[in-house]
Amino acid sequence: AEEFKEMSPSDFFYRNRDIAGFTNPSRAIYSTIRELIENSLDACEINGILPDIYIRVSAETEETPDPTIYRVRVEDNGSGMPSEVIPSAFGQVLFGSKYKLRQTRGTFGLGVKMAVLYGQITTHGQSRILSSTGTSKMYEYTLMMDIQKNRPIVVKHKVHSNKAKWHGTVVEFTTEADYTRAMAKILDYLKQTAIVVPYANLTFVDPRGRFYKFDRATTLMPKPPTETLPHPHGTDMETFKRMIDSTSSRTMKDFMKRHFQRVGEAIARRFLEFSGISPKKNPRKLAQEEIVKLVNAIKNYDGFLSPDAGCLSPLGDELLRTGIKKELAPEFMSVYQRKPAAYSGFPFIVEVGVAYGGDILKTDGILLYRFANRIPLLFDEASDISYKVTNEMMNWRHYKVLPDTPIAVFVHICSLKIPYKTVGKEFIADRPEVEHEVLNAMREVARHLALFLSKKHHMEREKKR
Amino acid sequence: AEEFKEMSPSDFFYRNRDIAGFTNPSRAIYSTIRELIENSLDACEINGILPDIYIRVSAETEETPDPTIYRVRVEDNGSGMPSEVIPSAFGQVLFGSKYKLRQTRGTFGLGVKMAVLYGQITTHGQSRILSSTGTSKMYEYTLMMDIQKNRPIVVKHKVHSNKAKWHGTVVEFTTEADYTRAMAKILDYLKQTAIVVPYANLTFVDPRGRFYKFDRATTLMPKPPTETLPHPHGTDMETFKRMIDSTSSRTMKDFMKRHFQRVGEAIARRFLEFSGISPKKNPRKLAQEEIVKLVNAIKNYDGFLSPDAGCLSPLGDELLRTGIKKELAPEFMSVYQRKPAAYSGFPFIVEVGVAYGGDILKTDGILLYRFANRIPLLFDEASDISYKVTNEMMNWRHYKVLPDTPIAVFVHICSLKIPYKTVGKEFIADRPEVEHEVLNAMREVARHLALFLSKKHHMEREKKR
Ligand SMILES: Nc1ncnc2c1ncn2[C@@H]1O[C@H](COP(=O)(O)OP(=O)(O)OP(=O)(O)O)[C@@H](O)[C@H]1O
Ligand SMILES: Nc1ncnc2c1ncn2[C@@H]1O[C@H](COP(=O)(O)OP(=O)(O)OP(=O)(O)O)[C@@H](O)[C@H]1O
Ligand SMILES: [Mg+2]
Ligand SMILES: [Mg+2]
């Protein structure tokens, strides 16, 4: 007879940790560092704090040539965390503060737990967290994860005084790692983060004690991301029913205005008329068939305004240009930001840049830089939608780009929900709406590139006479 | 202040359902059908039952040209399920009977719940399950999922008499679907399943009432998959500690023999000597440092036998040939099964076939058929390791294959744990050990193809004289 059992989400992600980017000691140290840095950046940006982030990776063992165990420490000056949530934030899978409709890097409530878990199963170490929200107290926890039960084990808990009213978080633990193999990618990640987050100070101390400092290039920060209401187009039966269960609205007209973004008096009336439901109807008194009717009507009604992208934080032309210049010192570049678009009710903005010449080495294939919500994506390029657009959908010959033309393409997508294909957050699914935006943005910059290349070609031929 | 919350795994996979292959109505109906069929095939094979599976998709609404809501019904003659587990098996995410070291198609305890969930959020329908293990009773449940709490809601529960002692399971529910768009892939899936599961009867009735019958070509079945013990190489601190917590062994020597596969008296002694732990030591009395010592020693000890592949069920040369012939009627083919290999302690076997000519159309790119544990993988080809090996690592010119040479490649991987990159089970991660096996198998068949092609080329030149 078959044995049935349930599995906790921590046990599930422990057994399937490669799905989260923790495949081997080289990939794992990269994922560990990025998950910690992204948490620190979110914690600063959400509160309008200019980020100062210190990352140290030091060898814990002494094998030659390569140690196997490292200690990772990441410190930030971000919001810090209240004492009571710290154990769960670091020891319970599917727990966090980013389950909202808001542009953040974090989204799954899983990242730091995967890093802590990997460290624990490879070194049996404990993780140490120090945090304060800037009050007179700072909280220190020494934790382990009960992976089977998905709950933190508080090994030690101390309260310190915080006279300096410091705010921020320090995370430290040991982990098995192949640092030597991962090093190039880690430095690349820091360098590219510095490009798209130019207002952050990043300091990295590697196992040899070498300092890598990326000083902030500006003190201008995007405004903190705000939470927004869902758009009608993202609504299915489950979401709708949860809204009804939680609503304080007494009429459907008020319900539509209160629970959805950009639905005002007129649109609410017209939509309810379209769906055959009285604007005075009490949402809690809707019959099952009426709910089905409404959810179907939402899909078919074309009078809703497009999703509000005011809550999104694109890089902007200037920042993208500065970044490309810094990275590649190109002879020519062109950048373009598409108007906001949406998929399944989630707004997103695509920004693309193309660069020619300068430091771009002629390699096989087009150099592709991918970013999502200001995170550099450095793995699984061939599975990413931007790769597909760049290498399979763009007709580069049409834009005077030949196989040996040295060009680089930059793609940044910001959204309330990046359509990552896996919980490892390394590549983006080919959602047709996103594909459409990336392709059209790329054609726009390619047009400018074509003009430049023909002019250049023309001038070179003139020279030869 | 930030709001922290925990999320149930069902709510997590509801919000992130594209990660599981439920992106849109066309992909979702495909995923629904495959998840149900794979459950039925597992339920038959685990018990040595020749599978008879009936799948019906019928339109529930009448829009023209394309209905939006369909009813899906899958019936099998498999093991059936005991009454008490049915609500959780269909209504609780991360619940199932395949969390074992055994070759099955299912692995996550998630598939059918995703299908049920998608149906529920798009149609507010209830799912109906009928099942019996061949006893005098059969059990009928009408269920919904409480997605926030991750538990089933039993709407109705009836017990019927089962005079015929039927055993099997019927699953039925409504779901939003774009059947027209998904149809070609669904039929492809059935056709390719029939190739690698030639002992199954598959009957599919589509929304137009058309019958597609794939009759079994043989009554020879692979022996039912057996559960095996873990291999030392897959052991980390967590796994080791769980073994200690559950062990009834009183000595470390007995512990090593009882908890790991292929560890006998001699290997147990030699390993414990290597790791500096007494064979008489009581496992429950191990100190923390001793556990760390043992887990590290396991990594470094090279005296373990390779993982036992006796529990694996490869297709075999004959079946692979028959399948390729049936699908492509090629002018030439060559197949090859590699010896068992392993990654992270999990044994796996790679089988590859290459075919030339016949019905193979000259298209751009090599026609690639991928299978894992006898499941056809039809999506996300470009992200799969076999695609990478076929199109980026193989030097086909060296084997006389030119861009216009009509060839097709088949890859089947069977393992206790297929290294899927996502919970959608559509593509396989590029684990170096797996890549190595696929590459070498492909080179082997390519060698035979090269001989054939040069002979053919030679004969054609002779003719011209
Ligand atoms: N450095 C930090 N400063 C402040 N809060 C933090 C920090 N690191 C983690 N947190 C809190 O802990 C929570 C859990 O972090 P975790 O990385 O597991 O999930 P996430 O960032 O919400 O999503 P994701 O899985 O996509 O990373 C976060 O939501 C955040 O509230
Ligand atoms: N047709 C069936 N006959 C017998 N048992 C079934 C059938 N369908 C589902 N089950 C049982 O329900 C459990 C849950 O199925 P589900 O598809 O969610 O998970 P799984 O098959 O174990 O893994 P995966 O998520 O990879 O499909 C299975 O493990 C199996 O025990
Ligand atoms: Mg995070
Ligand atoms: Mg299944």
Weakly predicted, low-confidence segments of chain A: none
What is the subunit arrangement here?
Answer: homodimer
The assigned structural class of chain A equals: alpha+beta
Q: Note the beta-strand portion of chain A.
A: 15-25%
Most extensive protein-chain contact, per-chain counts = A-B, 60 and 59 residues
User: What order do the helices and strands of chain A follow?
Assistant: EHHEEHEHEEEEHEEHHHHHEEEEEHEH
Give the total of beta strands of chain A.
16
Structural shape of chain A: globular
Question: Helix proportion of residues of chain A, in percent?
Answer: 25-40%
Q: How far apart lie the N and C ends of chain A?
A: 87 Å
Order of strands, main sheet of chain A, comes to 7-6-5-8-3-2-9-10
Mean pLDDT of chain A: 96
List each distinct ligand once.
adenosine-5'-triphosphate, magnesium ion
The biggest sheet of chain A, with number of strands, parallel, antiparallel or mixed sense and barrel status, is: 8 strands, mixed
Number of helical runs of chain A? Answer: 12
Cα radius of gyration of chain A in angstroms:
25 Å
